[in-house]
Each structure stands twice: as structure tokens, then as C-alpha cells.
Amino acid sequence: MNTILHKADTRGEANFGWLHSRHSFSFANYYNPERLNFGVLLVLNDDSVSGNMGFGTHPHSDMEIISIPLEGDLKHKDNMGNETVIKSGDIQVMSAGTGVMHSEYNNNPDRVVKFLQIWVLPNKKKVKPRYQQITLNENDRRNKLQQIVSPNPNDPGVWIHQNAWFNMATLESGKELSYQLNDPGSNGVYVFILKGGITINGEALTNRDGYGVWNIDQLIIKSDSETELLLIEVPMN
């Protein structure tokens, strides 16, 4: 078993006034040679954007981009004809493929929007760009794992071009969960604590800590308090 611990206060940081972002991995002006990626997971940004502000139209290609709103409303527009708003309980994915242009703005003038921006390297390049957005039933993650991303279009949640699975859970204090890896021979798991606290392998994790583990078949998680978490299983090569 191999592990890596990223405490919340060791993450990279960018603060532009309108945008406050914490980076679990190297991104933009934050570079840490020991935090380039976790397997094919390249970016896990914890973003807060002020009212009516956001990211103007910009390009991406050959990347699976997943957005998970945590608070507020995020307005999305792209050159595929999509113009929509995502909010807490929604999941958004763009397969950038051969190239996509998009913008993301806070849809409200008087409140912050908070969301996770996650980039995963695809297992297929130059695919046709695609967009998908769904609304989840958050009750389905109470004291259990709710799958939100997978490689299979017929599975619950959204799908991406990668052998990766994302799950979310909201746990009562003292609850224990086990997670069986879908591909233990190739994959690892990165656990990100949205709030609360858990213990994994004797390691205590709290708000916004990240913990990666690989060369395992199963992960046991025990909540130390009311906890919300994101679990990301990805190929390590």
C-alpha cells in the first residue's frame, strides 16, 4: 500500500480578489514538483468566485473537466450551444476532445459561488467534444456512497473518457464505509474532505484535506463527525 497526505493548509493558493482558489495539485502560477498529479487526476481546484464575476471564454482540448458546485449558482456557456446554470446537487462534465470554448460566471450579484473544478486526463484523444449536466438526489448519499462519475454512459451520474469513478457521501458521526476499487490492479483512490472529519488507515483527515492511496483492493472509511466527502478513483499510470 502506498499513501500520500495533502493537508488543507499546504495547498497552493491564488487570490485575485474576485477569485480565491486553493490548488491540491500544481496549477497556473502554483508549481510544486511533488504535487503534479495523482495518476490521471491533474487538477482539483477549490474555487470561490464573487458575485457577477467569473472566467471569460477560453479554450480547452483533450481533457475531461468535471465541475461540482458546492454553494451558489454557476452560469455556463460554450460553443457547443449550451447555456445553463449549475448549482449544489448538480454535476457537470465537459469532454474537451478536439477543442471547446466556454465561460463560467457567478450567476448572482450578491453571493459567492463555490465549486470544485477537476481535470482528468482522458484515455482517448481528439474525441468529439461533449457536455453533460445532471441533478442528483443528495439523499442517496446519506451514510452511503453515491456514484457521480464513471466510464459507463449507462451508469448513474455523468460519464467520462477514462477508467475513473467518483463517489460522494454524507456520513453521520461514527459511520463506517468500505469502498471496493473497480480496478485495483491499476487504480488508486484520492479522498477529499469537504467538511467534517474521517479516519483512513489510522490517518485523521479534516476539512479540505486530501489523502491518496494505491496498491490496495479496498478502502475503509470511518467518520469522526458529520462529514461530507468526495472519493475519486483513477488510473495511476
Write the layout of secondary structure elements.
Elements: E1 2-6, E2 12-15, E3 19-23, E4 41-49, E5 54-60, E6 64-71, E7 73-78, E8 83-87, E9 90-95, E10 100-106, E11 113-120, E12 130-135, E13 146-150, E14 158-159, E15 165-171, E16 176-180, E17 187-195, E18 197-200, E19 203-206, E20 210-214, E21 218-223, E22 227-235
Parallel strand pairs: 13-14
Antiparallel strand pairs: 1-20, 2-3, 3-4, 4-11, 5-10, 6-9, 6-11, 7-8, 7-10, 9-12, 13-15, 15-22, 16-21, 17-20, 17-22, 18-19, 18-21
List keywords for this structure.
237 residues; mainly beta; Jelly Rolls; seven-stranded mixed β-sheet; seven-stranded antiparallel β-sheet
What do these coordinates show?
With 237 residues, this protein is an all-beta fold. It has two domains: 11-135, Sandwich (Jelly Rolls), CATH 2.60.120; 138-235, Jelly Rolls (Sandwich), CATH 2.60.120.10. Helices cover 0% and strands 56% of the residues. It is built from no helices and 22 strands. The chain has strands spanning 2-6, 12-15, 19-23, 41-49, 54-60, 64-71, 73-78, 83-87, 90-95, 100-106, 113-120, 130-135, 146-150, 158-159, 165-171, 176-180, 187-195, 197-200, 203-206, 210-214, 218-223, 227-235. The strands form four sheets. Strands 1-20-17-22-15-13-14 form a seven-stranded mixed beta sheet, with no helix packed on it. β2 (12-15) and β3 (19-23) form a beta hairpin. The protein is globular. The two termini are 16 Å apart. 33% of the residues are buried. This is Pirin family protein. Belongs to the pirin family. It comes from Belliella marina. Residues 15-120 form the Pirin N-terminal domain. Residues 147-234 form the Quercetin 2,3-dioxygenase C-terminal cupin domain.
